[in-house]
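Blinded run. Sample ID left blank on purpose so nobody reads anything into the name before looking at the predicted structure. Input follows.
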Amino acid sequence: MLKRFAVYYRSQMKLFIADLVCALLLAVCDLIYPMITRNMLNIYIPNNQIKLLLIWAVILLSIYLLKTALNYFVSYWGHLVGVAMQADMRRDVFAHLQKLPVTYFDNNKTGTIMSRIVSDLMDISELAHHGPEDIFISVITIIGAFIMMSSIYFPLAVIVVLALPIMVIFASKLRVKMGEAFTATRVEIGEINAGLENSIAGIRVAKAYTSGDYENRQFAKGNKKFVTARSKAYKVMAQFHSGTTFIGDFLQIVLYVAGGLFCAAGKIDIGDFTAFVLYIGVFMNPVRRLISFVEQYQNGMTGFRRFTEIMDYPAEEDAPDAAEMGRAKGEIEFKDVSFRYEEGKDVLRSLSFKLDAGKTLALVGPSGGGKTTICHLIPRFYDILEGSVTLDGCDIRRITLESLRQNIGMVAQDVFLFNATIYENICYGTPDATMEQVREAAERANILSYIESLPDGFNTIVGERGVKLSGGQKQRVAIARVFLKNPPILILDEATSALDNATELMIQQSLEELCKGRTTLVVAHRLTTIKNADEILVITDNGIEERGDHASLLAQNGIYAGLWNGMSQTR
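Blinded prediction complete.
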């Protein structure tokens, strides 16, 4: 774990070394100060050497000014080392998230993932900066202080050192408890973030159903769990700090008594004793640093451990023999395909069908039959368990994921627009598109006139998830996005089911224009939108129950005819 953590120092190595050098100089300054004080008390003041007293006072002032500059560098630039490392980690984990399979996002809440990327990495910057610095300064200062104290009076120095093993043993016993407590706190913070993300995203539903009290109660439960977890962490921290503080205070009492006795016995003089007292402070400061480091280490490494859990999750990978595919013709075939999301619950069983290039295939039937699953298997959002899916005769597992997905355009019922401009949403995935190409795509999607009627035109911010646009407008922006991508394969998954009839008719015209010359797979509940499909498959839990065009399926007077007649009666 530490080795993986240390890798992130590489990009900041020069600044990191400069920070350690400054920290070393700070430690040296702290070691020099008591010796100057000792000489002032033992030599310059008793012997009335005013000139030397003033000279060393100026030297002491210079040391303090140097310390001021060094402290500024360590506090500012040293922290930037941690911030840069944190940014690198956040960059890496975000890049890795882009490569993770859809199953990861199915099984992990958005708020929890956000917590790991943002909150969990916050303390890492402090650990990255202060961790090595504290250890380095502490070791140098403890050794230096011991040497200086030994040069004054060795027996008294030994008494000071004897306190270290006691503190180390005490800290070690509480380290495991602190790790467990901080991990539990991180988990609860993730749950709170997940609940917040879910509640804020669904605020309109909450208002529509006047469920504010329910949301408050749900949040209160998570908040209470967080308080409980945090209180346990603070309890261990309180034990840790109070125990180590008592050991340090007790040590000072012992030293004052022992130093006083040695001074009374004539083993050391008052100047030596004063210098020794100052060195006790110098010695105890790094000890306190190390004590604080234990807490900081547990906090930071808990976040880093959760960071590595995401980084260690297997990413989507191309098969060793996968090859790039150019622009596909668009022939798709399912051969005895079986798939399940959970063990023992098959969604598809030995499913076979063929969609010729440039043709339109429609999937209809009751919910739960696997229609959307079929749509998700073609771009390999999920991998099949048995059988094969081929594109132009090539198993899609033998095609690189990027080139496979570049050949596919998708328009779903739940259109996702980013909180950006209309222009950025249309050219998403085609960043090098010209303004002329974006305008043409918008025109073909029948939304250009609306965009140009807006005060900011294409620079209009659509809001989170496109909240500032109507359902039809969002759908047409999504259609324009596919027009701009211009893929040979088009997947329409309930693209108009959430729209009213009038809006659906307008959108349908855009979709018909979009489908021209493309291999198209359509999932629809409104059968009027797919009656012109080249082939229609009726899919149920038992697989493909019926297949044929609109006219032949009506003639069969089966499931499709029943769905059509039922829809006709409700119109």
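Unblinding after everyone has recorded impressions. The two ends are 64 Å apart (CA to CA).
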